[in-house]
Amino acid sequence: MLLRSAAALALASVSLWADVKLPALISDHMLLQQGVPARIFGWAEPGESVTVAFRGQTLTATTNPQGKWDVWLQPMQPGQAADLRISGKNTLTVRDVLVGEVWIGSGQSNMEWTVIKSDNAEQEIAAAVYPLIRLFKVVRRTTPEPLEDVEGKWEVCAPDSVKNFSAIGYFFSRHLHKKLNVPVAFIDSTWGGTPAQAWTSRRALYADAALLPVLADWNKALYDYPEATAKYQKQLEDYDAKTKPGVEQGRRPTAPLGPGHPHTPAGLFNAMINPLLPYTIKGATWYQGESNASKTQAPVYQRLFETMIQDWRERWGQGDFPFLFVQLANFEKAGSPSDWVLVQEAQAKTLELRQTGMAVITDIGDPGDIHPKNKQDVGDRLALAACHLAYKEQIVYSGPRFRQATTEGAKMRVWFESTGGGLKAKGDSLKGFEVAGADRRFYAAEAKIDGQTVVVSSPSVTAPLAVRYAWAANPDCNLYNAAGLPTSLFRSANW
Question: ∠78-275-49 over CA atoms, to 5°?
Answer without folding.
Answer: 75
